[in-house]
Each structure stands twice: as C-alpha cells, then as structure tokens.
Design brief:
globular, 24% strand, 5-stranded mixed barrel, alpha+beta, 14 helices, single chain, 8-stranded mixed sheet
C-alpha cells in the first residue's frame, strides 16, 4: 500500500492494498456495529472513501461493556491484522487486537443513528452531515474539482491572483450587495444634507462584500497576461431557491490578448478537463451518487466530454426557439434573456450537444462587454449544459476607452469612480477576455445533486447562517 513516511494509511488505501497478514492501525468513526454473543462486526469510516472497512472483534477478548460503547458515531482507534475478508462486499477486513474509544456517541441522541434521512433534515445539522455517505462523496468531489481547477491553470501558465473580498465597486451593477461598515448602524454620522457620512467609516467610503473578482482580475491580466481568481463571492438577493446562495465561490480567468473565439475555446477545454478529471479520479463517489440520486449522471458527464460544443449566435438561437413549436413558460423574443427552459431545449433537444451562445443584445449584458460593429450586440458568450442551462458566462472586454465610458454612462456608473479601471484603457490597452464559472453550479452538474445547498459545506441563505 502506498503511504508516506510517518503517516498511517487511510481506510481508502487499506481497501486498495494487496498486502495481507500485516499489522495496521486505523482510526475513524463507527458507522454500524452488529454481531452475536461471540463476535462483533464494526463498520469503520474515516472520510477517505464512501466504503467502510470491517473490523472483526472477539467479544470474549474485549468484553461486552467495551463493545457497547462502540456505537454508531463513536470515534475509535483499532490496531489489528489486515486479512482477506471472509464475507462479500469488501476485499479485506481487520482482525482487531486492541480497540481504544476516543469519543463515544449516545445512541439515544446521535442524530445520524438511522439511515434514510432526507436532505432537508440534513441541512438542519450541517455540522454533522459530512459524516453521511452522501455528503462525504460530495465533499470529496468538491475537493477534487478545486484541485483540478488549480492544476489546469497552473499547467497552462496562468497565475493565481487574490482579488479583494471587500470592495468599493459593483462589478455587475446589480446593487444586491452586503455592506461592510464599522459605523453605528442604529445612529450613523450624517452629512449636512442628512446622508450617511461614510468619510468617517473605516475605509472612508461605502464598501461591500464583492460580487465578483473580475474587474480586479482584468488589472492583473493587463500585466501578467493570464490570471485566474478562485474565491468567495456574495449576493444579497432574497432568493430561497435551489439555485441561489448568498455566499458562493467563483472561478474567473482573465486573459490579455484573447478575443472572443479564444475565450470560448478556453471555456470548452476547461470544462471538459474538469469533468474528465472527475470521471477519472472520483469514480467511486460518482457511482454512489448515480445510484442514490441520478442514474443518468455518468452518461451526462460523458455527454459533455465526448461532444464538441456548438457555437451559436444569440439571434439564430432565438429563431430556432421560435420555430420549435414548443410552448415555453417564458416568452421568446429578441432582446430578452434566455431562461433555463430555452437553454436546455437548445442543448438537450435541438443540438443534443453543449452550446456556446454568443453575441447577446447589449441591453441585457454588463457594461464592460465589448460592443460589436452592429452597435446592437456585445461579444458575450454563455456556455449551456444539459439539465442546468448556463454554467459559464463570459465575454471579450471593451478595450476602447471612449466606448467604455459611454457604456458606463448608459448604466449610470460614474466614470470618475472607476478611474483605476479606465486607466487600463488609457495606458497600453489591449484586447482581453474572460469568463466566470460558479463553483457550486459546476458541482451541481458533476454530482447530480438537485439543490445548491447540498454542494457547499455550510450554505448561507436568507435567514440562515447557523453554522
């Protein structure tokens, strides 16, 4: 078995081991204990795998009193011999020589004593739900995807840029932001005009938690050529839906000298890499989630990796939807944003491939997106996936100073407040592009889970910040 000097093997490593008859030490939490008056069978898990390792304990050797404390949820240390398993379902088991109980768990009060808890119930005990098979699998996949993201960009010459969490700008122009202040909110200082005097606040101006690292990411790209951000972002929208969180993580690469076609190529390659990584490295957890929650999960993941993405102009997409004969819940009209039902129709029924939709009307996209020559559309692109619709949103950024100032004014953004952003268009401006991938949106797709609150360890939603 592969171990590192000074470290004991994990249960995942032991289950893969070809060694037999060797003494091992395992530590973990008891999932179940069963048996008879002669022998106890203890299923132990340390979080390294969805599978348990079976510990066989002689009742005469350890005594009934000790083994009663080896209850579901208890943390224990076992030393024993790794042997071929006599039962089905696992290749090896451990014949116990010693058992030490680190911490017991009262069977009468331990919330995970029974199987089959609903996901809604488990959200109420988010501090314990990682011990379940479902959330152990989800969190291991979350780790694998985070690692793969860093590996992908590092191997391709990108630099990881830490953009600010506290910001004085609103990248989206949406206004749904969490304010950060040290002022007395019950009685803040006021100006002669009666407005809150933010000059007396900690930063001397109004600040908020960031909704995106993009704008600052652009500054890094205009010096280092290729950067990416990967950090928490915040939206103060009062949305209690399976798709919304108040705190979530975003991956946002920004690339100098990339035009829209380059941006699309990178997005497609990036997504395929991540999903292939999951298929190659998380097979056991994906198989478990497919069995328990979404039997089409593996097929859908392969659907993305095995098909080239269609590149479709927004205007043509509208025409296809109108000609479909399908009665959609939301109206289809040029100038309106597409809804999930429209996006999924294009991907799942019309093209039967992932779609990258490009060249959106300028009125429904952000101020920083580059205007096309037609004056009506911008060089935006959205990557559309089966089941969830949009998974990535990006664009070529406006590199022309005067056009960018004009777009800011269209959005009632004061150019003087964004002088630092405009400076990159005054000094050595260049074509540049980028996109944003919501980490939890990616995890919804990769795990097959239906609610975004089930792919983040401690969800933050309206009226919920318990843990």
């Amino acid at each position: 078995m592969k171990t590192y000097e000074g470290l004991r093997p994990s249960i995942a490593q032991l289950l893969r081991s070809t060694e037999r008859g060797v003494e091992v030490e395992i530590k973990g939490w008891v999932r179940t204990r069963r048996g008879n008056k002669n022998v106890a069978f203890i299923a132990l898990n340390d979080g390294s795998t969805v599978s348990n390792i079976q510990v066989v304990a002689d009742v005469g050797q350890f005594g009934e009193e000790l083994l009663k404390q080896v209850a579901t949820g208890a943390a224990v240390r076992v030393v024993g011999t790794l042997v071929e398993s006599l039962g089905s379902g696992q290749p090896v088991e451990v014949q116990a020589k010693s058992i030490e109980i680190y911490g017991g768990a009262d069977p009468e009060t331990y919330p995970l004593q029974k199987k089959g808890h609903s996901l809604e119930f488990l959200r109420e005990i988010a501090h314990l739900r990682p011990r379940t098979n479902t959330f152990g699998a989800v969190l291991r996949i979350r780790h694998a995807m985070a690692y793969a993201i860093h590996k992908y960009f590092n191997d391709r010459g990108f630099y990881y840029l830490h953009t600010p969490i506290i910001t004085g700008s609103d990248a989206e122009g949406a206004g749904a932001m969490f304010q950060v202040t040290t002022l007395d909110v019950a009685s803040p200082p006021r100006t002669d005009e009666g407005k809150v005097d933010y000059s007396q606040d900690f930063f001397g101006k109004m600040t908020n938690l960031t909704v995106s690292g993009q704008l600052e990411g652009e500054l890094g790209a205009m010096a280092l050529s290729k950067i990416y951000t990967f950090g928490p972002t915040f939206r103060a929208e009062n949305s209690n839906t399976p798709r919304h969180l108040a705190e979530f993580w975003m991956i946002e690469p920004e690339m100098a000298f990339y035009e829209l076609a380059d941006d699309m190529t990178l997005a497609e390659d990036f997504l395929k890499y991540l999903i292939r990584y999951a298929l190659d490295n998380c097979a056991e957890d994906l198989a478990f989630l497919a069995k328990m929650y979404d039997e089409e999960l593996i097929e859908r993941l392969r659907f993305v990796t095995e098909n080239d993405f269609v590149r479709l102009d927004y205007t043509e997409g509208i025409e296809i939807l109108k000609a479909s004969g399908r009665k959609f819940e939301f109206r289809v009209e040029w100038g309106l944003d597409l809804q999930s039902e429209h996006e999924r129709y294009l991907v799942e029924e019309h093209f039967k491939r992932p779609v990258i939709l490009v060249n959106y009307p300028k009125e429904i996209k952000a101020f920083y997106m580059k205007l096309n020559d037609d004056g009506r559309t911008v060089r935006a692109m959205d990557v559309l996936f089966p089941k969830i619709g949009e998974i990535i949103g990006g664009s070529e950024r406006e590199a022309d100073y005067d056009k960018l100032v004009g777009r800011m004014r269209d959005f009632d953004i004061a150019p003087e407040d964004m002088w630092w952003y405009l400076d990159t268009r005054r000094f050595g401006s260049a074509p540049h592009s980028g996109f944003g991938l919501g980490f939890e949106r990616l995890l919804l797709f990769v795990t097959g889970m239906a609610n975004i609150r089930d792919v983040i360890p401690f969800p933050r939603t309206p009226h919920h910040a318990e843990f």
